[in-house]
Amino acid sequence: MPNAKAYAAPSATAPLAATTITRRDPTPNDVQIEILYCGICHSDLHQVRDEWNEMMPTVYPCVPGHEIVGRVTKVGSAVTKFKVGDLAGVGCLVDSDRTCPECKQGFEQFCNNMILTYNFPDKHSGGVTYGGYSDSIVVDQHFVLRIPANLSPAGAAPLLCAGITTYSPLHHWGVGKGKKVGIVGLGGLGHMGVKFAHALGAHTVLFTTSAKKKEDALRLGADEVVLSTDANDMAKHAGSFDFILDAVAAEHDLNAYINLLARDGNITLVGAPPKPFQIAAFPLIFRRRSFSGSLIGGIAETQKMLDFCGQHNITADVEVIPIQKVNEAYERLVKSDVKYRFSIDMASLKG
Ligand code: NAP
Ligand code: ZN
Question: What is the DSSP letter of 298?
Fold first, then answer.
């Protein structure tokens, strides 16, 4: 029997609309959560519009949402991590095999059998997983995160994807004091990247296509802001970066950024536009520069990131919206018109 309210996309072209879905009763290891806030990630939009058709075709109806913060309402008999009333978070992962070498090393996101929070096969229901644009969710305790009490739940929700997706590569590539670091794109991911790079003590440079975001970027922690459409401005930084994190959701020229890396510098892509990139050979080989990707982060690392945010009082800058405005929010997201993450207030789903 359907027992949860949700918003779902019925097809790639129809607007999201109210619906009801079924959530399982908690099994012994499950945590049932009443969702308070869910962030809107650009991945939700890519998936809803079936823009990733070649890699991950969308199954409709699709209930997106993987930046979830809520209150625990019920726990299974074997749950030790949470009790009723706790604040809890769920990100992009809800399951993995937990036996493979990746899982054993805390890299659940690279497990061949990982299950994403939406649009992935759900062994419990036999259908696909449904995400956080809903009033509740049931998740195995291993994939549920503790949210530091000092963080606002609305601003903490985006940490579950935008937070960990930027925190993880910054750590992997040794960003810290004495490093010059670039963040490309001041969106949901990018603004978290700026906050983390700044908190880690790096000299942080924000690249943007939007001149009007300059003041915000400086306030968020950037030491410098470069308008990426200005070739002269870009040329001033040639060969100078230790690391660049690219968090752009659309097609753009990566070679322009590779040229800005120092010897042995790395550019890591977290943005996932659907079309392949063209990378020139010479800028990479001449200075032993490297180009890589990164996918969210494992569960232990996500908890570490949340605890770091608790200590440093870091949350996303959010515009809180009722779920009835989700389609309008998607249109604005495409135009980079959000400062800097939409967070859906799920109380709006109750009415
Ligand atoms: P977002 O909030 O829409 O931000 C993307 C930013 O990219 C915009 O704010 C804009 O920044 C810049 N941009 C947009 N169009 C551009 C264009 N045509 N040329 C150059 N820059 C452009 O998106 P998001 O939620 O941060 O997600 C960013 C990407 O990361 C998406 O593709 C998403 O699917 C992906 N993602 C990946 C992972 C992962 O694990 N790897 C996790 C989450 C999301 P400016 O206005 O400052 O230029
Ligand atoms: Zn996301």
Answer: -
Tell me the C-alpha to C-alpha distance, in Å, between residue 205 and each of 76, 121, 178, 190: 46, 40, 13, 11
Instruction: State phi, psi for 263 to the nearest 5 degrees.
Output: -60, 135
Q: Give CA–CA dist 203/337, Å, rounded.
A: 27
AA letter at 41: C
Minimum-distance ligand to the CA of 317?
1
- Ligand 1 binding pocket, CB closer than 6 Å: 41-43, 46, 161-162, 165, 185-190, 208-210, 213, 247-250, 252, 270-273, 294-296, 333, 336
% residues pLDDT > 70 (the chain):
100
> Residue 114 phi/psi, 5° resolution?
-65, 150
Instruction: Determine which residue's CA is closest to atom 13 belonging to ligand 1.
Output: 248
Coil, helix or strand at residue 310: helix
Residue 186 alpha carbon, nearest atom of ligand 1? 47
Model pLDDT, residue 351: 72
- Nearest CA, atom 46, ligand 1: 210
Coil, helix or strand at residue 185: coil
**62 Cα–ligand 2 center, Å:** 15
pTM of this structure: 0.98
Cα of 46 from ligand 1 centre, angstroms: 11
Rg over alpha carbons for the chain, rounded to the nearest Å, is 20
Maximal CA-CA distance, the chain:
63
Q: Do 32 and 26 meet the contact criterion of CB atoms below 8 Å apart?
A: yes
Given this model, what pLDDT does residue 2 score? 74
Mean pLDDT of 298-307: 98
How many other CB atoms are there within 10 angstroms of residue 295's CB atom? 16
Tokens of 89: 């978070």
CA of 151 to the centre of ligand 2 (A): 19
Buried b (16+ CB within 10 A) or exposed e, 38-48: bbbbbbbbbbb
Q: What is the pLDDT of residue 267?
A: 98
